[in-house]
Amino acid sequence: MEDSVLLSRYQETLSFLNLTAEDLQLMAEFKELFIQKAQEFVNKFYQHLTKFPYLQELIKKHSTVEKLSKTQAEYFISLTSEKIDADYIKNRLAVGKKHMEIALYPNWYIGAYRLYYEVVGELVARKYSPGTELYFKAVNAFYKRINFDIQLAIENYIAEQLKYLAAIQEQVADAAGFISSIATKTNILALNASIEAGRAGEHGRAFGVVAQEVRKLAQESSKVAKEITEMIKHNMEEIEKIRRQNSGMM
User: Fold this and answer.
1) CATH number for the domain that contains residue 55
2) What residues make up the domain containing 152?
3) 27 and 148 assigned to the same domain
4) How far apart are CA 134 and CA 47, in angstroms?
5) Coil, strand, or helix at residue 77?
6) CATH classification of the domain holding 210
7) Could you say which residues of the chain have pLDDT below 70?
8) What does pTM read for this prediction?
9) CA angle at residue 126 from 121 to 132, to 5 degrees?
10) CA-CA distance, 70 to 73, in Å (whole number)?
């Protein structure tokens, strides 16, 4: 997707969140403070995450705390960026795709942001007194940005899930088509066998009974294959509907 199209697509989301240029400028004032706090925050972040066996296994299987800490620190500091451009959006979408690939479920991802909400309040309080208008404006600006980031990641997580489901449906459709093809061929063979059994008279009676049963089985298999095809068609329509809803196309 071209950068201009990507930005245009998410402009409505930014407007809905009321994430403004003023908000971005306000967050940028905290850049040095976020840089100073980054490593301390990341250490706390992964100390918390690694308390949970499932997350421990994911990290061990796909990366290391050291590598992830670097990426997390970069993201932490990026919250003070004065711009949200195409690269920023692509990065957040890529997070959702990666989470789908490694099976990091949304409950873990969204839950981890609790630590971000906490540290934002603490850092803003170092510059503006809690309870003042500027304090609330700054905290709200960060919360809106975090909300936007979560939306992007979850949207692409769902999109990747739908792609995966669609791929499975296509595989099942291929299998159903193969079954239908075999059923058709078997039905023809059974019909020919019945004709030959009839010509053989008394000697072909037993063979004729078998041929009839084979033909019946082929017809039933063909019926099941058609039913599977109809179910797949319905499921694919539902997947497409969800995909369109998820991407804001409806």
Assistant:
1) 1.10.490.10
2) 3-157
3) yes
4) 32
5) helix
6) 1.10.287.950
7) 1, 178, 183, 185-215, 217-218, 221, 224-225, 242-250
8) 0.75
9) 70
10) 5
